[in-house]
Amino acid sequence: MLPESHANSLLKVRWLGHASFLVTSQDGTRWLSDPYEESIGLLMPPVEPDFVTISHHHFDHSSLQALTGTPPVFDQRTEYRNHRYRVRAVSTFHDSAGGERWGENLVFVVELGGVRLAHLGDLGHVLTQYQRAELGPVDVIMIPVGGAYTLDGAKATEVVKQLEPHIVIPMHYRMPQLVFPLDEVRMFTSRWPEAVFHTGCTMEISQAMLTQKNQVHVLACF
After folding, report:
1. 4-218: what CATH class?
2. 0.70 exceeded by the pTM?
């Protein structure tokens, strides 16, 4: 359970760096996305999730070494549901050339704590009408914005406008520790003048936050 002081929170979202998040619902269910190898320049903290999603099997998105226990791992196009969460994967590409450069990418839509979240993985293109329809309405998206291997700030903005979520959390952008030559997050946030910059790596999502569209929240990691 979340602490009593956070009783109004539907979810707690903790950014672990790069494209990895640990999302915890009020009942304590923990979802981990895209854990990475420390060779990227960041140290993956030890975590004990209830389930894991992996958007694609590149070393910066698919390391299970830091995990405790043996949670179910979703890394294929699938649809799964139990009494605590629902997971659905939509096929996309890692690049704008139909996967010719970097391969395929899965966008995971997860229903947890009454909230529908979409982790876009290493999405490299604007969504087709079919993909947009497959995703359906979403409340929260985690979206890559660093360019080079994924969407850049301009294309990410297009995808936000396609999906029109309530909350947008940018990821997969330049960090001092990272070995990848990615764009800085400001290349995305400069297009969103009301973006909120958090001083920590976590944020809580309440029902009251799910009333306005396209609220950009930038989390701080390390």
Report:
1. alpha beta
2. yes
